[in-house]
Amino acid sequence: MQSDNVTSLQWFFACPQFIEPLLADELTHCGAESVKIGHAGVQALGDLRFGYRAMLWSRLASRATLQLAQGFGKDQAELQALIDSIDWQQHLRPEGTLKVRFFGLNDDIRNTQFGAQWVKDQIGDQFRSQHGVRPSVSNTPDLVVVVNLHKGNASIGIELNQHSLHQRGYRDLGTHAPIRENLAAAVLVRAGWPELIASDAETVALIDPQCAAATFLIEGALMAFDIAPGLLREHTVAERWLGHDVDLWQELLEEAQQRRTSGLAHTERFEFWGNDSHTAAVMAARADWRSTDLPAARWTQCDLNAMPAPTLAAVGLVINSPTIEASANVVTLRPLFDALGTWMASLPSTYRGALFAEADVPIALTNLFYSKEYRFLNSETECKLYTFDKLAQKERPTEWISDDLANRITKNLRKLKNFIKQGHTDAYRVYDMDIPEYAIAVDRYADWLHVQEYAPPKSIDEKAAEQRLQQALLTLPAALGVDPKKVVLKQRRQQKGKNQYEKQGRAEQALIVSEHGVRFKINLSDYLDTGLFLDHRPIRYWLQQHAKGQKVLNLFCYTGTASVHAAVGGANRVDSVDMSATYLEWAKENFSLNDLQHDPYRRYRFIQANVLEWLYDCDEYYDLIFLDPPTFSNSKRMQDTFDVQRDHLALIDDAMRVLSADGTLIFSNNFRKFKLDAEVEERYIVQDYRKQSLPLDFERDPKIHGCWLIRKK
């Protein structure tokens, strides 16, 4: 079908967040009359020729939507009026197929799936009233209708790209790549690759020393040889759209083919080199490269520290997105970045560099001076691009080993020497923000280190804090004689409610530690806490020493460590109560580790319940009760929430009600500003046990917890 392609049309081109300005420039070069930058996309005004050219040539866009109507859409009536204002017969055959993509909500439509079905019905009713038939739904439709609702306004358009514009056709849809093609193209633009292409340099090189899927190299070659991404896709434009101009599209395709032929005439000017340490990655990269019919490239397979010298082009760009494992930290990354920085600095002075990585990657370990940094979003991961106009390393590399921190740890270890030598435990604290500049807590669990970073004050420069953290992580293995791969880092922030118990990751780094003859399972990576509160070591041992022949209750039992100590100490009965099924299973594992799993007389019970409600209804008596509640928690009894400062008196009263006449309640909590209600001391015999319950390795922090032994008068 022929159409008047000189008529100005409204378009919206979607793209990854933070590259909108680059897309706006690209659309302008494609012939847009005007552009307006939005969130994750650009609005453009231009004729059909512009729209087709942009879909064919855009290296940055994800989707192209032709806007048909914009107006009010705060309810179904307003949205229906907008739908009815469009003559759908101009876009779709009555017996054709369609699909509706619906975004946003309004007063009447509270579900996007319902919204898509409702819009389809409204369009179908228009066809049925005029033709007696209506289009059907398909996953491979003739037309994709897009509806967006936002703050009472609505826009309706049709998506004219047959497939996502980020796809080039050289990679199978099921193949995983660390970066999408259009994002890789945006990174290359920011890195200055188009400027090198346009320069008068006789030869130009693009090198990726950790190429993985070779996305940077392929996108760079497509730019260098003036190859339109749309030429590589089997289908780019929605050819079954009734407004499709076949002749115009064919004209633009032929123009793109001519430009490709002209571009490939300059193959001798460019050198492309991909390297990776993994054989499979190099093989896959070469296969994708060949599928695009690009000229021959150089491929090598080796580690960074074995990289050979490049064929010396006049100018070049080294671009790299380091492959980093999820469990990596600054200690394990240092050799990688050191080798990368050293190799990049060995290149000619006419070369420039670019590193694309997650935002918290320790780029300073390269010892290179970066020129600029740019923010990107790779899927949902925040990333940064660092560009290097000159590949020169610092004459005085940053000193990554802190003598101050190492000396303080040595001093702490001297203080703990006898404690460690006694061998009562292989899990203890070795450092806790002793030096304000190094705001971390370091706990040793057997031959592992668990490092918790305290959130720095707002007055501290973010980059300075990050560099100090990296310096600390590099110092700790040397100072404590630990394998750098056995350092786990977690950021420590104030947690409320159940967040402190929620899973943080999936690494499942578990090990076994011992304490006063008792063994515990520890998980260093998956939760905010490890499964063992080290500061409660003395009170757990107290329970072990006093539990013989006693009936013991552990409330908010967590992983049951106090329960195990009581059982090992000879308790006749131990009941452990917690809301979390996960932690009760963990508690059972801890019992099994100590050969306590076989229990024909049900001496050891694990009760999943809301502790406050269970305690209120409890009709049994206990000789020893360990009560260590969270600072905050949800509860149906306590005004919908539990606050340890506000509600501890009622909680203690409930616990004392089920305590035997000669029994002891151990009450503890870690709220640093906690004050015991005076009413508690009036009603019961209270022994302040804070000093006795504080272990040697926590003496610097006497407010780590409060602890009281409470008995009936």
UniProtKB/TrEMBL annotation:
The family this protein is said to belong to? Belongs to the methyltransferase superfamily. RlmKL family.
Annotated EC = 2.1.1.173, 2.1.1.264
**Location of the protein in the cell:** Cytoplasm
Q: What is its main location?
A: cytoplasm
Q: What does this protein do?
A: Specifically methylates the guanine in position 2445 (m2G2445) and the guanine in position 2069 (m7G2069) of 23S rRNA.
Q: Which UniProt keywords apply?
A: Cytoplasm, Methyltransferase, RNA-binding, rRNA processing, S-adenosyl-L-methionine, Transferase
**Protein's recorded name:** Ribosomal RNA large subunit methyltransferase K/L
- Cytoplasm as UniProt keyword: yes
Q: Does the keyword RNA-binding apply?
A: yes
Q: Where is the THUMP domain?
A: 50-160
- Which Gene3D superfamilies does the annotation name? 3.30.2130.30, RNA methyltransferase domain (HRMD) like, Vaccinia Virus protein VP39
A GO molecular-function annotation: 23S rRNA (guanine(2445)-N(2))-methyltransferase activity
List the NCBIfam families: PRK11783.1
Which organism was this protein described from?
Thiothrix litoralis
Q: Which reaction is recorded as catalysed by this protein?
A: guanosine(2445) in 23S rRNA + S-adenosyl-L-methionine = N(2)-methylguanosine(2445) in 23S rRNA + S-adenosyl-L-homocysteine + H(+); guanosine(2069) in 23S rRNA + S-adenosyl-L-methionine = N(2)-methylguanosine(2069) in 23S rRNA + S-adenosyl-L-homocysteine + H(+)
